[in-house]
Amino acid sequence: MIKITCNESFFYSTINSLLIQKNLINEINADKFITTIKIDIKDNNLYINCNGKKEHLALPTDVNILFSQILKIISDIKISKQGCDYYPYQRILKRNSKKSYLSDIQNIIFSNLIISNSGINKDKLYRLIWKKDKDISINKLDTHLTNLKNQLKKDISINVNFQSSDKNLKLLIN
Length: 174
Description:
Shape: globular
Structural class: alpha+beta
Number of strands: 11
Largest sheet: 4 strands, mixed
Strand content: 25-35%
């Protein structure tokens, strides 16, 4: 969900691997992302820039401190669509004064669908959620889609629908 740019290739591959482990970046849907984090290393300092927010760390630094700074920067990122504000890194959807808290699976589904205007392949989405499953069971995904739809209707009175055509899934918000 995050695109990383960095002026140092070794550091880029290291931070990219860390963010994949922490599920902030996925390898399958690398062409679509919510935000870009620019990292520059210069004069034994690390500079992080994301959506106008900037942080600075002296090198060497602890990986946990770096990760904490990245989380601090991305926590307030929001996507507004059809009168709703979606905070992907807080796993919250807000509408008016109401909130809906998403589970990890619901957040993976919603975040991938909201940034994919043309939709996402159901098999790819399944593999993003259940990386270790050897067999794909689309019924399992469909159950989570139904639960997400019902939760959003109940929590924030919004109607979402999922349109599927040739295994391509799209999000429709009314």
